[in-house]
Each structure stands twice: as C-alpha cells, then as structure tokens.
Amino acid sequence: MRVPDVLYRFYENSLARGLSGDKLPHHVGVLVDGNRRWAKLAGAPTAHGHQAGADKIVEFITWCEELGIKVVTLYMLSTDNLNRSSSELEQLMGIIGNTVDRLGESKRVRIQPVGAKDLLPVELSKKLAQLAEETRSCDGVHVNVAIGYGGRREIVDAVRDFMLEASAAGKSLDEAASEIDVDAISRHLYTKGQPDPDLLIRTSGEQRLSGFLTWQSAYSEFYFCEALWPDFRRVDFLRALRDYADRQRRFGS
C-alpha cells in the first residue's frame, strides 16, 4: 500500500475512533446530488453518472450499518426531476429499480418508499411496494427511498389524507379543521411513525434543500459537502458525523 493510502486510512480510522455512539444521529437524510455533473466531468453519458451514484448508495448503506445509524432517507428522485427527458428518465428509473433490488437482496435493510407513487411508472411502483412488504421484518437500517418525492406535495397529501379520514368518520368540515395541528399532520406524512432526521447531508456543493423533508427538517442540522455524490467517501461521511457531534442542538430555541 502506498504511503498516501496508509496516511489516508490512518486518518479515516482516527475519525471513526473519535466518534461517540451517543452523539451519532439516529436518522440521516441525504440529498444524493451531483451524478449528472460527475458524468459530464468524466466525459461519460448521463446514465453512467446515475449508475455510479447508485453504486455509492449501496456502499453508503454499508457505512451506516457499520456505524449504527438506524434510519436513512435517500433523496433519489424529486417531483421536479420527473420533468427531465423521457430517455433519461427511462434509464434512471431502471437504475433506481436495480438499486432498490440490490438493497433488498442484502436481507439486512428495511426498505420504505416515500413519495407520490401515482407519479411513478407502474412497474417501479409495484416493485417498491413488493420490496417494502418483503423487507418489513428486517431489523437492520431502515432505508426510506424518496422517489417521486416533493416536500410540498407530501404536506398537501398529508392534509388531504387527514381530511378524508375525518370525512369517513362523519365529521363536519368545521370539526375537522378544529382538529388540525402539528401532530395530526405528522401522523399522515409519508414518514409517519419515524423520528425526524437529525442530520441532512447534501453533496455537490449546493446549499439548499430543494424540498427535501420540508416538514420533518424543521430542527435538523444541515451539512453541505463539496464532493459530487459518486465521489463521496467514507471519510467525508465521518467528517459530517464529527461536525454534527460537535454541534449544540437548540431545536429552535
């Protein structure tokens, strides 16, 4: 092993040893951004960048397993992304389907799709539902795959579900409106029953959330990394976790 590789491995191991389990986030959300730019810089087709990003997702979940991260939400495809060319979307949907299959094959992670299923191709929607059922009893990392996801759409869907539930219970519009509060909306989110994300990571140098977990991220800590997602390394993840551990969380106060 070359000297630079030895030093790099030493630094990575030093970072890992310095992390205290009680200061690690329980739920990490990741905006896996930069696949298209990575492909462009490499002079490769866009699909090559999406595939490299998919391979990184599988690797990333392994890191989370090793570190004891319990819940991960991956922003894989937004509602805005659905406006891309039909050829790119077709390739991307295939890569996404293959990626969730690979995660499911491990038999170690629980997969839960979060997003507007009606916006997805029928076959992908069926695949996600099947994997969610097949991995329901897995006690490893809980992986939310945000596909066809938009934060505003999620809140609209939550309010709609709440109102439909109230209507089915025979409640008037006024009665339903009087019962709407934070807990009522939270119970109808795609991630209902889960803890809100402690840490949100975005790669590629962009410093915005782009509608990712709009409701759930109210008190999350944010970490922005310059690396494009396919180039995101374990040491980058460890740095994000160290940064999170060093912060004093105020939860809005």
In short:
It is built from nine helices and six strands, in the order αβααβαβαβαααββα.
Descriptive account of the structure:
With 253 residues, this protein is α/β, with parallel strands linked by helices. The chain has a domain at 24-150 and 198-219: Undecaprenyl pyrophosphate synthetase (3-Layer(aba) Sandwich). It is 48% helix and 13% strand. The chain contains 9 helices and 6 strands; from the N terminus they run H-E-H-H-E-H-E-H-E-H-H-H-E-E-H. The protein has helices at 3-17, 35-42, 46-67, 86-105, 122-134, 151-168, 173-179, 182-186, 234-246, and strands at 27-31, 71-78, 110-114, 142-149, 199-202, 221-224. A 6-stranded parallel sheet has the order 3-4-2-1-5-6, sandwiched between helices. Helix 5 links the parallel strand 3 and strand 4 (142-149). Helix 6 packs across helix 7 (173-179). The termini are far apart.
Shape descriptor: globular
Give the helix/strand class: alpha/beta
CATH class descriptor name of the domain at 24-150 and 198-219 = Alpha Beta
Following the backbone from N to C, one meets helices and strands in this order, namely HEHHEHEHEHHHEEH
CATH architecture of the domain at 24-150 and 198-219, please?
A: 3-Layer(aba) Sandwich
Mean pLDDT: 94
Described by strand count, sense and barrel closure, the largest sheet is:
6 strands, parallel
Taking strands numbered 1, 2, ... along the chain, how are they ordered across the largest sheet? 3-4-2-1-5-6
Instruction: Tell me the strand percentage band.
Output: 5-15%
Number of helices: 9
Looking at the structure, the CATH topology of the domain at 24-150 and 198-219 is Undecaprenyl pyrophosphate synthetase
State the end-to-end CA separation: 49 Å
- Weakly predicted, low-confidence segments: none
The rounded Rg comes to 19 Å
Active site: 33, 81 (proton acceptor)
Subunit structure: Homodimer.
Binding site for Mg(2+): 33, 221
Keywords: Magnesium, Metal-binding, Transferase
